[in-house]
Amino acid sequence: MGKTIKEALNEARKVLSVVSDIPQKEAIILATHTLNVSETYLFLHEDDIFEKHEKFTTFVKRRGEGEPIEYITNKVSFYSREFFIDKGALIPRPETELLIDEVIKNVKEFQAEELCIAEIGTGSGIISIVLALLLPKAKVIATDISKAALKIAKSNIKKYALEDRIKLYHTSYLDGVHEDIDIIVSNPPYVSNDFKIDKPLEYEPKEAIFGGKKGDEILFDIISITKDKNVMLLACEMGYDQRDSISSYLTYKSLKDFYFYKDLAGLDRGFVVKI
Ligand SMILES: C[S@@+](CC[C@H](N)C(=O)[O-])C[C@H]1O[C@@H](n2cnc3c(N)ncnc32)[C@H](O)[C@@H]1O
Q1: Which among 176, 173, 204 has a CA at the least distance from the CA of 191?
Q2: d(C-alpha 272, C-alpha 236), whole Å
Q3: Which atom number of ligand 1 is nearest to the Cα of residue 146?
């Protein structure tokens, strides 16, 4: 006799409690994903035999070994929307929603205009897509050096039917991009190369995490590129300990009108430059 849904969930909870603070919730997510049913269905059928139990066990084992749940379900939520995600791209983080808020706050008065936004390092495409949805007249250029990430971005752009408004470029920074840009936005890799990352981060692409010897090198490059272009705004996410170095670099580049914003934990998390 196979296991019932209730029994399988109990077993999974024990395995997941090693890696998760919410093992019951994660067991339910993996079960609904395996069976392609709702949470309500699971509870109404908890005494039924768990069909596809082997598949469920494989998912639970992967999660139990530390793999992020988003790479197992291929789903991630960002800015209250669902996106496709896979190992080729960084899993969007909740704090990156603040970067979107900062851009929107600063372009409010231009919302009706046909702005051109460039995103450097689009990964799964979430920033470009949410900005395009919130600014219906804007056009977006999204670049990335990773072909795997661009493939994921492409499928998300298709999901939201934004193919006409978001143009993907496989390039470094804005190399080969000749459009007139109004806003540059980026959540680039900003962790120093020798930082010892936690196990779940090991599943994510290295080129999405490490930003150089000190970690702020890519941010410096983005600031320099922005300075050379005729844009009105630059908004970037950064590491919590990079405020001083970024502030010095902006001043060195004669960019004076800038501020830093904090994340929900009260840590410095990004900056906005009005040019
Ligand atoms: C921290 S991830 C951010 C992904 C996504 N924008 C997000 O916020 O979830 C940084 C992304 O920048 C890309 N990247 C790294 N160096 C780059 C460069 N020189 N030019 C363009 N993209 C780059 C990486 O491949 C990765 O997809």
Answers
A1: 204
A2: 7
A3: 25
> Which range of residues forms the domain containing residue 20?
5-66
Q: Give nearest CA residue, ligand 1 atom 24.
A: 208
- Joined tokens for residue 204: 């994510």
Q: Are residues 88 and 55 in the same domain?
A: no
DSSP string spanning 149-190?
HHHHHHHHHHHTT-TTTEEEEESSTTTT--S--SEEEE----
Nearest residue CA, atom 27 of ligand 1? 123
User: Do 108 and 61 belong to one domain?
Assistant: no
Distances in Å between the Cα of 269 and the Cα atoms of 95, 171, 218, 259, 261 are 8, 26, 15, 11, 6
- The residue among 70, 90, 69 whose CA lies nearest residue 82 is 70
In a shared domain, residues 118 and 28: no
Whether 234 and 266 share a structural domain: yes
Rounded CA separation 3/52 (Å): 10
What pLDDT is recorded for position 246? 98
Query: Nearest Cα to 103, choosing from 119, 87, 123?
Result: 119
3-state secondary structure of 111: coil
Q: How far is the CA of 272 from the centre of ligand 1 (A)?
A: 18
Distances (CA, A) of 149 to 28, 56, 170: 28, 27, 10
Q: What tens digit of pLDDT does each residue of 1-38 get?
A: 799 999 999 999 999 999 999 999 999 999 999 999 99
Instruction: Provide the number of structural domains found in the chain.
Output: 2
Query: How many angstroms does the Cα of residue 64 sit away from the middle of ligand 1?
Result: 28
- pLDDT tens digit sequence for 176-224: 999 999 999 999 999 999 998 888 889 999 999 999 999 999 999 999 9
Alpha carbon distance 4, 48 (integer Å): 5
Q: Are residues 44 and 170 in the same domain?
A: no
Residue 112: pLDDT over 90: no
